[in-house]
Design brief:
Keywords: DNA-binding, Metal-binding, Nucleus, Receptor, Transcription, Transcription regulation, Zinc, Zinc-finger. It is a single chain. The protein is mainly α and 475 residues long. The protein has two domains: 5-47 and 241-466, Retinoid X Receptor, CATH 1.10.565.10; 68-222, Erythroid Transcription Factor GATA-1, subunit A (Erythroid Transcription Factor GATA-1, Chain A, 2-Layer Sandwich). The chain contains 13 helices and eight strands. It has helices spanning 132-143, 167-177, 191-201, 204-234, 239-242, 265-296, 306-325, 346-353, 355-369, 375-386, 397-418, 425-452, 461-466; strands at 90-94, 97-101, 123-125, 128-130, 248-249, 329-330, 335-337, 342-345. The strands form three sheets. Strands 5-8-7-6 form a four-stranded mixed β-sheet. The protein has a two-stranded antiparallel ribbon with strand order 1-2. A two-stranded antiparallel ribbon has the order 3-4. A hairpin with a 4-residue loop joins strand 7 and strand 8 (342-345). The longest helix has 32 residues, at 265-296. The protein starts with 89 loop residues before the first strand and ends in a 9-residue tail after the last helix.
């Protein structure tokens, strides 16, 4: 069909006329992320986001919303401590961490730096040796749910003198070194810990290991933070948003718009099914636009060709929609609550999608919900569902494979931090991706029935395009 897909080649504008091809362009590049520059990125660097409202304390911060679901149990694999000595010491700074190497003739006075900015640590805060400034910054970030944006490339150096310049990179550093809302052990640094840290930091080899590990973790947390914020901004079924949904009675069945006495019983049933599909499409349509916006913010997605972006969104939309809606499936009442609160009985979904597919949808929702993922993890899972190398006709498979690998690494890191006792959870999520993909393929085959009866369906152009349903004879 020809609904404007050709226009994706020339750079597209905002969502106005409802065409999928006009809402694809993105501004998040792998080039903007540490460790991801091996991907064949676009020649155009990512555009700098606008400055925030209400954060005038520094020249570069930007904000929209940050989310506390990022923080639980995000302790790093291993964070090496740093030290400093007094008067005759030699100062050294690397990656925002202040290290004082003492003169052999000097009398050392223990100094434990903040693992975020290198300032003098006041104790253990949120599970990490940190200063009062970074403790307060992290507390405000998770309590006020601030979403930060880096106005540069996500690689800002975080140290004592400039820690207020970029709040995004500072928050990312807090997460990377292990600050967590659930790690609330406060207090002064024990004397024994100081002695151990002083001994440990004396090795230059360990310091180099620290720097390399920190860079790797920052690259992964850049992905985690970016995808999490994209998910919270575009998904209407997060834990917070779902609280405001008020349920209401609803039916997909409506009176046909034509004289049904002129057709056979079979034709009447077909027309009713098409009408129910059309009614459901009106409720799903806004999610298409949000999924596109979500995809645009996945690191590396905008570097793909427009054709590959369209393929991934078309093939992955239903799977993302299903993963986002799992909290609203009720296996006990056998209902699905839509985002506006409309409660659809399973029996009506059976008519639209067939009982077998609907049963699989309910089964997936129940088992997926049992894993008790937080919103950040659901966002990363959805991103993995979208960027899938098994999609047909992808032109740059190498780039898609690299993005997919990075997303899965980020999901694995998040799971390992947040579910340390559940050693098999990541493998279970990979199984869930395969199960979700199977349901998506069956749904794609089902759409063939509606495509053959396109003349009975009047769906919005964007919905018709995402599912390749013709609108006219010429499509």
């Amino acid at each position: 069909m020809n609904t404007g897909l050709d226009s994706v080649v020339n750079g597209l504008g905002p969502v106005e006329n409802g065409l999928l091809s006009e809402v694809i362009p993105g501004n998040i590049s792998l080039d903007s992320m540490p460790g991801l520059t091996d991907v064949n990125a676009s020649n155009n660097p990512c555009s700098a986001p606008s400055s925030p409202v209400g954060h005038n304390s520094s020249p570069h911060p930007s904000s929209r919303k940050a989310y506390p679901s990022l923080s639980p149990n995000l302790s790093p694999t291993k964070t090496l401590p740093h030290q400093a000595a007094s008067q005759n010491g030699l100062a050294s700074q690397e990656q925002g961490t202040s290290i004082m190497m003492p003169d052999s003739n000097s009398t050392r006075q223990a100094f434990i730096p903040c693992k975020v900015c290198g300032d003098k640590a006041s104790g253990y805060h949120y599970g990490v040796t940190s200063c009062e400034g970074c403790k307060g910054f992290f507390r405000r970030s998770i309590q006020k749910q601030i979403e930060y944006r880096c106005l540069r490339d996500g690689k800002c150096l975080v140290m004592r003198l400039n820690r207020n310049r970029c709040q995004y990179c500072r928050f990312k550093k807090c997460l990377a070194v292990g600050m967590s809302r659930d790690s609330v052990r406060y207090g002064r640094v024990p004397k024994g810990s100081k002695t151990a840290e002083e001994q440990y930091v004396s090795s230059a080899e360990h310091q180099q290991y620290q720097v390399a590990l920190e860079k790797q973790q920052l690259a992964m947390y850049d992905i985690i933070l970016t995808v999490s914020q994209a998910h919270h901004s575009n998904c209407n079924t997060t834990d917070e948003k779902i609280k405001s949904i008020s349920k209401k009675t609803f039916t997909l069945i409506s009176k046909l718009d034509f004289d049904n006495t002129l057709g056979s019983t079979e034709h009447i049933l077909e027309a009713h099914r098409c009408q129910m599909f059309q009614n459901l499409a009106a409720y799903i349509l806004p999610t298409i636009q949000r999924v596109v916006e979500f995809a645009k913010r996945i690191p590396g997605f905008a570097d793909l060709s427009q054709d590959d972006q369209l393929i991934l969104i078309k093939c992955g939309f239903f799977e993302i929609w299903l993963s986002w809606m799992t909290k609203l499936f009720n296996s006990t009442d056998k209902t699905l609550t839509l985002e506006d609160g409309s409660v659809v009985p399973k029996g009506e979904l059976d008519i639209v999608y067939t009982p077998d597919i609907v049963s699989d949808m309910f089964s997936f929702a129940q088992s997926f919900g049992a894993l008790k993922l937080n919103d950040t993890e659901i966002g990363l899972f959805s991103a993995c569902a979208l960027v899938d190398t098994s999609r047909p006709n992808i032109s740059n498979m190498t780039m898609v494979e690299k993005i997919q690998e990075r997303l899965r690494e980020a999901l694995k890191l998040q799971i390992s931090r947040n579910h340390m006792s559940e050693t098999m959870l990541f493998s279970q999520l990979m199984d869930k991706l395969r199960q979700l993909h199977t349901i998506g393929l069956r749904h794609g085959q089902l759409l063939g029935w509606f495509r053959e009866r396109w003349y009975l369906i009047d769906t919005p152009p964007l919905f018709a395009e995402i599912y390749d349903i013709r609108k006219t004879e010429d499509d």
